[in-house]
Design goal:
There is one protein chain. By secondary structure, this protein is mainly α. The protein is 38% helix and 0% strand. The protein starts with 8 loop residues before the first helix and ends with a helix.
Length: 52
């Protein structure tokens, strides 16, 4: 979370805000050997959380 609150991330997100929709954040545990997750896996996990 320290990265999120510091530049360049903070400044970039401020610039992109007018172009972005509502944000949703999902957290899950993942094995190091599965990093980075595939987009399909991330969407599946996000959808599973949203339907709970």
């Amino acid at each position: 979370m320290a990265f999120v609150r510091q530049d360049p991330h903070r400044a970039t997100m401020g610039l992109l805000r007018p172009y972005m929709g509502e944000s949703a954040f999902t957290r899950w545990t993942i094995r190091g050997s599965d990093v980075p997750p595939s987009w399909d896996d991330a969407v599946r996990r996000s959808d599973a959380v949203a339907t709970k």
